[in-house]
């Protein structure tokens, strides 16, 4: 009889175990069980939109006042979105305004008409190239590189003064580098 009393619970336990394994039992799904799904009602904080850095062309647009080097001339430059540039200089002799078109190629400012890139006098000729060294919301640094050479008249004059062959002066070239710092005129961004 003791054996039957002991066998009955074991048999019932085995049957219940077998039934539990073969039947479908629904279990509640938790967020931990499904990490790819967000629980309803919970809102995760959103990261701020990344700041898009402005390009050199975008930063260049605006009105700038030359602050370095200091001279007796007040100079402003204005660059527009549509490729127009206006330079204004004023000194004791009056105000001069020059309107040009520009293209920004990399960091090089190419001006039109092309005579803005060249200068000549009876004694020498120059090719001018302007580069944007740096530009921020408030500060613009432009470097002007001038490549110069003597004209025939200038070479003859130099040769005569120094008692040297004209060819020596016709072959001479030079490079000048001028760095100008501008500040954005307030209220113009």
Textual characterization of the structure:
This protein is an alpha+beta fold and 189 residues long. The chain has four helices and nine strands, in the order ααββββββββααβ. It has a domain of 129 residues: Lipocalin (Beta Barrel). The radius of gyration is 40 Å and the shape is elongated.
Summarize the structure.
The chain has 189 residues and is of the alpha+beta class.
Q: What is the number of beta strands?
A: 9
Largest sheet: 8 strands, antiparallel, barrel
Terminus-to-terminus distance: 101 Å
Structural classification: alpha+beta
Q: Can you give the mean pLDDT?
A: 82
What is the element layout, followed by pairings?
Blueprint: H1 2-22, H2 56-60, E1 62-68, E2 74-79, E3 84-91, E4 94-105, E5 108-112, E6 118-120, E7 124-135, E8 139-150, H3 152-162, H4 166-170, E9 173-184
Antiparallel strand pairs: 1-2, 1-9, 2-3, 3-4, 4-5, 5-7, 6-7, 7-8, 8-9
Please tag this protein with its features.
189 residues; Lipocalin; eight-stranded antiparallel β-barrel
